[in-house]
């Protein structure tokens, strides 16, 4: 059970990584002058959309949380709307946090918000896919000893590594090197992306390594 | 012997202060100067035989010299668009008139007194002169003014008082104005100008020096783009015109032309301060105006870049004086271009000989320096030129040779100056090493003491009478003494420690040896204890809580960031980032508690974020046994947050966000640092003269808020005293013209506000006295717990009142919000979540650091607000001024430390918490400074060593001194605690 889960996890994660890598190369065939640094926001949104799409498709296909109850269409629609609402809320929430961290309040609003969007893509979207709009479950996962499955464990790892990535991504901003990637918010988006990818790589490996020690409450 | 961990920590910090002082003494090199006191005979003109007999000095070039020094005259104020607009006469002279214009580069520190010294001695004042800037002793070095006085020139001076202190009894007439009332920018200059008409009519002087301070003061108040700059420059322009026309009219009868030198001592940064080494601070304007510099019409010249020190040699030559012995500058050759070739060469020869002599005295291997070799070549060529000249040979060959000699001399001058400048950065490595060793030993002792000091008893065993130690101590002392003798007898050592009397040096050696012995004994005890440790497996790292991990990583990250110059310049960003992250971590913790009832003891963060390994944990677990970490305050009822209901629960949930919002607000109050310092901020908006009404409202509101936040824990008398004190502060600010009373339309009558400020001082002292009295009372009447907390809070509020008086009015919100954040954190975070003493200490330290930067401080000397040191003082008094400035600068860390004492003693179950807190505080403060001095030693040849790393070193030293004071205060409080 566990080993097959881990295998599934690995494949889904590889697909996610692949989609992010593609988002760097594919658009340059369609768009002129496309590059991560110069048309940063374009790349950011393409990356965000593709990551979201891959996440959605994968979770629908793999269905890690076997929901017991058959649900009606209206339930599904409200659930979907709720998810959208949660996503937007998380974008605004992250935006507020960035401003609290010192992002300019009035200038560069679009840039800051885009950063919030990509961070939400890497953190909130997988949460929504896996757990649905359930705040208490989210909190449970992010407290110690709260995870109940391989999927939740990997979710915890990818989310934390995205946060750590964006956190570390802010470090080069004060350096006086004058590089183009030091501009707000490029280093942070890159940090978040690297963090997310690192999380995707690390989590199956880490879970595989520690599979003896990990005991989940329900299996 | 058992020692409380607080006392132990205080002792270690005091030793560190000693070590850092020694390090600083070695790090800041003594300036390059000429030690020989022999009468400077002017070298004769070089010649082959006895054919030339020109031995006396060349005659003066100018009959009269007027030096018009405008403080903070940046180059673009004269040569840029501002100059064209506001200084039409000067611009005309620069572009068309008989003048020479230069951009003179000042070396950092760009502070007035070292710059005046550089202008007049031509030497490179050491960086440490900044510290002595406030208290200027007489200038003993050889300089132009002393030489001029010795030559019988009559010198008149009007302007900055610093000059009068530097040159007592040098001026036949003077009027010094004090530069410390920075808010005044008209009166200071009128005090200079009012003498002008009278003096210009008279003929009884040779040198006139005018030092105008107004421009600098405007810069300090509102920056270089202030609307006040234009009128000030116009005023200066009209004064220059007046002097110039008067000089021209007098010149007609005279034999020699006169010289008018317009110069600045340093520039002005985009924020308006100075002291560092940005282009704006370093580049100053220098315009020499004299009819001797004739220029053909249509001859357009751009100002050339020269060194500020070059003016000293030029002035000496202009006045026909010998060049000062410590001069490192070279003569501005364009000044003498119009003179006969023989005189030109003679002057260049004099300058080169002086520089090479200086090189000889300071560099043992001077013969290998390229400048010296070039000097020898030039002298040889000069000799043959003189022979040719005296033989009266062919004029074309003579001219060619003359040009060649001149070029050779100029090259030699440049090279000589370069080697001398490089020489100025010499370190006294021995003193630095001894200082570093002292600091590192103290730090090692602190680290080794961690397990014991943070245990429940918070006491350390100090083995005094072990048989091995005295032997070890003796051996070490002997070895160190031998080392000392070897180092000091080595050739060409001029270190501070060797200059000390034997007893003092021996004391330092004994201290080093004793600390080493203590370290060794502590280490052996740990290893002896480690034997029995091996059976118990080290406890898993799962005890690392988020907060513990965060404080550990934060401390390590901050320390590492000090190795990069940009991170030092932008250190405020590091602290803001850290406290934001801290708030979010607290937020996470709170939410888990509230929604999940998570009782996995997140507040178990006994480690203060220091090198805290599993061994220490396990060891501690062994020692303390079942009682475990008293520090971790294992929650007696884990559902303490669950119990909270209604509004209080909501407040707990909202409090991290409140704190975050406060921090964001404060962050936009003062832009500091370097990269984003020019960004508009609330502080500049408030201080601009158009928004006086808003500033007044804000100040009044802030003072009221301070009263509201402070009063609730005071006794009645101190409540009244605080109220009157705050009222007095507003009156003081109104009196000096920062704020307005509602019934005032515009404040015309600006005073120094001495009475008002002293009125506030009386209340501050009164409150501090009442607090101390309450504390003493609580000691006599045993277990009078409330009197004790009230007394401590009164001391805290006295400090708050003093800070409110000293901080500039736009910084009062910083004070209010710091009080508010303290209250919120106490009520809704630390108390309900039961954080341990160590965690609370680290948080206090971080917030203290952040508030240091919130009030607009940075790691550059320019942001020190020296005006705080003159609140309520008539004249400059060194000790109060230094104390007040230091307190105003470090009010953030000091107030947070004093709040820490209050918080810990107000918790009834404190026990040994205060001692542990003191230990943690000492540890988190001394880690950065210890690592930093090691880093600075390795970076001492870095490009930014003088502009970035050295000021930071001074700040770190000062911070350590403040920490030592705080730790002693902690220990004193702890003593009263244990006695009562
Ligand atoms: Zn100045
Ligand atoms: Zn100044």
Automatic annotation (TrEMBL), chain A:
One of its GO terms (cellular component) is endoplasmic reticulum membrane. One of its GO terms (biological process) is GPI anchor biosynthetic process. Pathway: Glycolipid biosynthesis; glycosylphosphatidylinositol-anchor biosynthesis. It is a multi-pass membrane protein. The keyword Manganese does not apply. The keyword Transferase does not apply. It is found in: Endoplasmic reticulum membrane. Its main location: endoplasmic reticulum. InterPro entries: GPI_biosynthesis_protein_Pig-F. Keywords: Endoplasmic reticulum, GPI-anchor biosynthesis, Membrane, Transmembrane, Transmembrane helix. The chain crosses the membrane at residues 9-31, 43-62, 83-106, 112-132, 153-172, 184-209. This is Phosphatidylinositol-glycan biosynthesis class F protein. It comes from Ovis ammon polii.
UniProtKB/TrEMBL annotation, chain B:
GO terms for biological process: GPI anchor biosynthetic process. The chain crosses the membrane at residues 6-28, 427-448, 468-491, 503-527, 693-710, 722-743, 758-776, 837-855, 875-897, 918-941, 953-973. This is GPI ethanolamine phosphate transferase 2 C-terminal domain-containing protein. Pathway: Glycolipid biosynthesis; glycosylphosphatidylinositol-anchor biosynthesis. It is found in: Endoplasmic reticulum membrane. It comes from Ovis ammon polii. Keywords: Endoplasmic reticulum, Glycoprotein, GPI-anchor biosynthesis, Membrane, Transferase, Transmembrane, Transmembrane helix. GO terms for molecular function: CP2 mannose-ethanolamine phosphotransferase activity. Belongs to the PIGG/PIGN/PIGO family. PIGG subfamily. Coiled coil: none annotated.
């Amino acid at each position: 059970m566990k080993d097959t889960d881990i295998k599934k996890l690995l494949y889904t994660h590889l697909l996610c990584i692949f989609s992010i890598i593609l988002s760097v190369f594919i658009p340059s065939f369609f768009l002129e002058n496309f590059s991560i640094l110069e048309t940063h926001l374009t790349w950011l949104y393409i990356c965000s959309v593709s990551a979201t799409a891959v996440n959605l498709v994968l979770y629908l296909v793999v269905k890690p949380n076997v929901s017991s109850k058959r649900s009606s269409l209206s339930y599904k629609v409200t659930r979907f709307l709720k998810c959208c609402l949660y996503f937007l809320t998380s974008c605004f929430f992250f935006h507020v946090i960035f401003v609290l961290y010192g992002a300019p309040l009035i200038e560069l609003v679009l840039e800051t918000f885009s950063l919030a969007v990509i961070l939400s893509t890497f953190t909130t979207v997988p949460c929504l896919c896996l757990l649905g709009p359930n705040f208490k479950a989210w909190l449970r996962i992010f407290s110690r000893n709260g995870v109940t499955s391989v999927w939740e464990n990997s979710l915890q790892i990818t989310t934390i590594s995205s946060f750590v990535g964006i956190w570390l991504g802010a470090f080069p901003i004060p350096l006086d090197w004058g590089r183009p990637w030091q501009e707000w918010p490029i280093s942070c988006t890159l940090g978040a992306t690297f963090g997310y990818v690192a999380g995707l790589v690390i989590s199956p490996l880490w879970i595989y390594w520690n599979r003896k020690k990990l005991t989940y409450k329900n299996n | 012997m058992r020692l409380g961990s607080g006392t132990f920590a205080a002792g270690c910090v005091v030793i560190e202060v000693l070590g850092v002082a020694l390090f600083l003494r070695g790090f800041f090199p003594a300036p390059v100067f000429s030690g020989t006191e022999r009468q400077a005979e002017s070298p004769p003109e070089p010649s082959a035989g006895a054919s030339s007999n020109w031995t006396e000095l060349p005659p003066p070039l100018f009959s009269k010299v007027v030096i018009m020094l405008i403080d903070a005259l940046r180059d673009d104020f004269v040569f840029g668009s501002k100059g064209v607009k506001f200084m039409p006469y000067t611009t005309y002279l620069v572009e068309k008139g008989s003048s020479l214009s230069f951009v003179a580069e000042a070396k950092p520190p760009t502070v007035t007194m070292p710059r005046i010294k550089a202008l007049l001695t031509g030497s490179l004042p050491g960086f440490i002169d900044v510290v002595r800037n406030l208290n200027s002793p007489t200038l003993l070095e050889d300089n132009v003014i002393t030489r001029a006085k010795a030559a019988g020139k009559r010198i008149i001076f009007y302007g900055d008082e610093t000059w009068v202190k530097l040159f007592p009894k040098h001026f036949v007439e003077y009027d010094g104005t004090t530069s410390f009332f920075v808010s005044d920018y008209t009166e200071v200059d009128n005090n200079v100008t009012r003498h002008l008409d009278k003096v210009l009519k008279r003929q009884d002087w040779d040198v006139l020096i005018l030092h105008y301070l107004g421009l600098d003061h405007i810069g300090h108040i509102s920056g270089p783009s202030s609307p006040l700059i234009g009128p000030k420059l116009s005023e200066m322009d009209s004064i220059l015109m007046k002097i110039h026309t008067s000089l021209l009219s007098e010149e007609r009868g005279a034999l020699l032309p006169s010289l008018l030198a317009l110069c600045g001592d340093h520039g002005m940064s985009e924020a308006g301060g100075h002291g560092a080494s940005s282009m704006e601070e370093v580049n100053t304007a220098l315009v020499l105006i004299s009819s001797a510099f004739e220029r053909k019409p249509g001859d357009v010249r751009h100002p050339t870049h020269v060194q500020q020190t070059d003016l000293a040699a030029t002035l000496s030559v202009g006045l026909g004086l010998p060049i000062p012995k410590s001069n490192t500058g070279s003569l501005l050759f364009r000044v003498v271009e119009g003179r006969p070739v023989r005189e030109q060469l003679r002057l260049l020869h004099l300058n080169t000989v002086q520089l090479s002599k200086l090189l000889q005295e300071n560099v043992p291997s001077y013969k290998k320096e390229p400048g010296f070799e070039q000097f020898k070549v030039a002298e040889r060529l000069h000799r043959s030129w003189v022979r040719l000249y005296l033989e009266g040979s062919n004029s074309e060959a003579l001219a060619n040779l003359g040009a060649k000699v001149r070029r050779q001399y100029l090259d030699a001058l440049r090279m000589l100056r370069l080697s001398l400048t490089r020489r100025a950065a010499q370190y006294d490595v021995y003193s630095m090493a001894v200082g570093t060793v002292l600091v590192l030993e103290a730090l090692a002792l602190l680290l080794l003491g961690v397990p014991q000091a943070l245990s429940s008893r918070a006491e350390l065993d100090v083995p005094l009478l072990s048989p091995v130690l005295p032997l070890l101590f003796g051996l070490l002392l002997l070895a160190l003494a031998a080392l000392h003798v070897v180092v000091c007898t080595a050739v060409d050592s001029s270190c501070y420690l060797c200059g000390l009397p034997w007893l003092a040096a021996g004391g330092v050696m004994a201290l080093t040896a004793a600390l080493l012995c203590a370290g060794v004994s502590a280490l052996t005890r740990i290893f002896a204890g480690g034997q029995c440790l091996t059976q118990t497996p080290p406890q898993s790292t799962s005890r690392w809580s988020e907060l513990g991990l965060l404080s550990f990583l934060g401390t390590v990250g901050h320390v590492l960031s000090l190795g990069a110059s940009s991170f030092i310049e932008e250190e405020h960003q590091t602290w803001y980032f850290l406290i934001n992250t801290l708030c979010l971590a607290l937020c996470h913790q709170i939410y888990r508690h509230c929604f999940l009832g998570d009782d996995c003891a997140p507040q178990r963060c006994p480690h203060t974020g220091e090198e805290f390994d599993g061994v220490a944990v396990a060891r501690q677990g062994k020692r303390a046994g079942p009682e475990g970490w008293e520090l971790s305050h294992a929650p007696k009822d884990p559902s303490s947050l669950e119990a909270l209901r209604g509004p209080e629960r909501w407040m707990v949930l909202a409090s991290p966000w409140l704190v975050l919002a406060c921090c964001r607000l404060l962050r936009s109050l003062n832009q500091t640092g370097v990269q984003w310092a020019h960004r508009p901020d609330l502080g500049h908006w408030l201080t601009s003269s158009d928004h006086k009404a808003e500033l007044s409202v804000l100040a009044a509101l802030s003072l009221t808020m301070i009263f509201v936040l402070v009063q609730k824990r005071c006794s009645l008398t101190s409540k009244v005293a605080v109220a009157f004190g705050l009222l007095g502060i507003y009156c003081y600010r109104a009196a000096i013209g920062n704020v307005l009373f509602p019934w005032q339309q515009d404040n015309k009558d600006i005073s120094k506000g001495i009475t008002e400020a002293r009125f506030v001082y009386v209340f501050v002292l009164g409150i501090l006295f009442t607090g101390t009295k309450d504390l003493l009372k609580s000691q006599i009447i045993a277990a009078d717990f409330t009197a004790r907390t009230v007394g401590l809070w009164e001391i805290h509020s006295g400090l708050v009142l003093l800070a409110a008086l000293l901080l500039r009015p736009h910084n009062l919100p910083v004070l209010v919000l710091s009080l508010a954040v303290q209250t919120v954190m106490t009520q809704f975070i630390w108390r309900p979540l039961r954080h341990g003493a160590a965690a609370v200490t680290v948080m206090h330290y971080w917030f203290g650091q952040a508030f240091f930067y919130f009030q607009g401080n940075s790691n550059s000397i320019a942001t020190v607000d020296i005006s705080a040191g003159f609140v309520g003082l008539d004249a400059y008094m060194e000790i109060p001024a230094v104390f007040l400035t230091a307190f105003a600068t470090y009010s953030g860390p000091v107030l947070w430390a004093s709040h820490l004492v209050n918080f810990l003693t107000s918790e009834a179950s404190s026990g040994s918490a205060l001692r542990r807190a003191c230990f943690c505080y000492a540890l988190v403060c001394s880690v950065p400074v210890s690592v930093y001095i090691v880093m600075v030693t390795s970076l001492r040849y870095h490009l930014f060593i003088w502009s970035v790393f050295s000021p930071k070193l001074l700040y770190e030293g000062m911070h350590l001194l403040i920490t030592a004071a705080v730790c002693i205060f902690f220990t004193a409080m702890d003593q009263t605690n244990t006695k009562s």
